């Protein structure tokens, strides 16, 4: 009887030691947070990450530079209203039959024909010198809407670049959101792997104690050792995936750090809203539709600018010049220098009306741009259809992901309950190590699937927000 009491007492002491070994350990989430803090990894909430990316993301810096360049280009046609000043200096050797002044035309100075006529019955092929120094000015008086049309075309180009920048802003917000939730999911997987590794180690220690107490077989210990090794490998891989996700998050946000952690955020489970409301918001605020409209406006503005080039131009011109020709004029008067010194001064002021009557190149360009207008209108209609389809697809994807997440949450809860029961049976000596290992594997798989399902919901919601042009 005494021997039987000792056996029972030893059995209960062994079971007590098993219970202590299987007791829950410290919070792995707190340990992970402490480890991240010790490693010096900054953490951003989703709102902080998007706000920071809008200022520092390299892609957005490029798009803003393009907008500024387009706005600067739109100022170029307006400069035609400012006076232009030019100068020329010429020295020419040529024959001067019936002319004692020889000058070359140039686009900087408007020069009227000034000079005495040399009358000669016989052609004279003797070269004479001619010189010219002149300064001229031209001022636009009335352009008949040509400059305004050119300015409107470049303003439309700047607006198109601005709409592209808005679309790029939404794209960056989408990438930041996906990277943020990828870090959150990777942290959940790493936490599940870490907790599983801890439980596997506790199970191994319990199996070792059970073998020492004669309550377990060596097979149970060997299986427990194998499970510890498997979960240690899974833990290392999960930590590597987390580090990679943090590196991607840092790069997308644009921080100079090598890694960026995802801080706490509100619940990831939010109602997507009614489909009709989402479609209406997409029609009003879709970046793709706004960009397509900007392309239509640009095509129309370029057509008007091309047509405006065929309008008249009225401008003021003035010049001050000194010139001389080496040939003797008909009146016999000569100046010193034999044409090599521009000693004869002149000035002129005039108002010029230039009328392009017909230019086939300008007409062909105008007609070609009208065809481009039709193309841009067709693209706008196609964009409307494709955007509605994108909203519908994103909405259905979010609904499906939320339904799957609910099922995964139930599966995770059931797996945890199953694991707790298997663990209780193992503590009481009623369950086997194989049963506990299977329950552990089922729990870890369910927790990982729950984390992946949460990421799928967050990514689907971000895609829907991008489709309706929302930035969280």
UniProtKB/TrEMBL annotation:
It is found in: Cell outer membrane. One of its GO terms (cellular component) is cell outer membrane. Keywords: Cell outer membrane, Coiled coil, Membrane, Signal, Transmembrane, Transmembrane beta strand, Transport. GO terms for molecular function: efflux transmembrane transporter activity; porin activity. It comes from the Bacteria. It holds the Pfam family OEP. Gene3D superfamilies: Outer membrane efflux proteins (OEP) (1.20.1600.10). Residues 275-302, 398-425 form a coiled coil. Residues 1-29 form the signal peptide. Transmembrane segments: none annotated. InterPro entries: OMP_efflux, TolC-like. Belongs to the outer membrane factor (OMF) (TC 1.B.17) family. This is TolC family protein. It comes from Polyangium fumosum. The lineage of its organism: Bacteria, Pseudomonadati, Myxococcota, Polyangia, Polyangiales.
């Amino acid at each position: 009887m005494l021997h039987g009491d000792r056996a029972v007492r030893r059995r209960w002491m062994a079971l007590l030691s098993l219970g202590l070994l299987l007791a829950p350990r410290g919070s792995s989430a707190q340990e992970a947070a402490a480890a991240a803090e010790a490693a010096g990894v900054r953490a951003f909430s989703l709102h902080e990450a998007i706000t920071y990316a809008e200022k520092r993301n390299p892609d957005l810096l490029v798009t803003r530079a393009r907008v500024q360049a387009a706005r600067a280009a739109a100022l170029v046609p307006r400069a035609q209203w400012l006076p232009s000043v030019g100068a020329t200096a010429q020295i020419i050797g040529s024959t001067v039959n019936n002319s004692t002044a020889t000058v070359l035309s140039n686009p900087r100075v408007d020069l009227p024909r000034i000079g005495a006529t040399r009358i000669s019955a016989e052609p004279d092929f003797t070269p004479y010198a001619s010189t010219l120094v002149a300064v001229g000015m031209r001022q636009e008086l009335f352009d008949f809407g040509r400059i305004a049309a050119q300015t409107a075309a470049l303003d439309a180009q700047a607006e198109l670049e601005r709409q592209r920048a808005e679309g790029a802003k939404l794209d960056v917000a989408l990438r930041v959101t996906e990277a943020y939730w990828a870090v959150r999911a990777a942290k959940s997987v790493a936490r599940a792997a870490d907790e599983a590794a801890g439980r596997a180690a506790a199970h191994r220690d319990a199996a070792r104690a059970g073998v020492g107490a004669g309550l377990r077989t060596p097979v149970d210990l060997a299986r427990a050792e194998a499970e510890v090794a498997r979960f240690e490998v899974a833990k290392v891989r999960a930590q590597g995936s987390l580090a990679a996700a943090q590196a991607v998050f840092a790069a997308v946000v644009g921080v100079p750090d090598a890694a960026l952690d995802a801080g706490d955020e509100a619940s990831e489970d939010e109602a997507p809203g009614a489909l009709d409301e989402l479609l209406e918001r997409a029609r009003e605020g879709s970046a793709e539709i706004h960009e397509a409209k900007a392309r239509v406006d640009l095509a129309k503005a370029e057509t008007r600018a091309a047509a405006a080039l065929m309008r008249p131009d009225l401008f003021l011109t003035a010049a001050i010049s000194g010139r001389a020709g080496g040939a003797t004029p008909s009146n016999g008067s000569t100046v010193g220098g034999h044409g090599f010194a521009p000693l004869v001064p002149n000035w002129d002021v005039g108002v010029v009306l230039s009328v392009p009557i017909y230019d086939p190149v300008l007409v062909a360009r105008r007609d070609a741009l009208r065809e481009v207008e039709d193309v841009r209108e067709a693209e706008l209609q196609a964009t409307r259809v494709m955007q509605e389809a994108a909203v519908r697809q994103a909405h259905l994807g979010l609904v499906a992901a939320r339904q799957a997440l609910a099922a995964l949450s139930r599966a995770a809860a059931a797996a945890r309950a199953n694991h707790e029961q298997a663990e209780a049976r193992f503590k009481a000596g009623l369950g086997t190590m194989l049963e506990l290992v299977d329950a552990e594997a089922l729990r870890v798989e369910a927790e990982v699937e729950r984390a992946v399902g949460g990421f799928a919901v967050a990514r689907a919601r971000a895609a829907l927000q991008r489709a309706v042009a929302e930035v969280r």
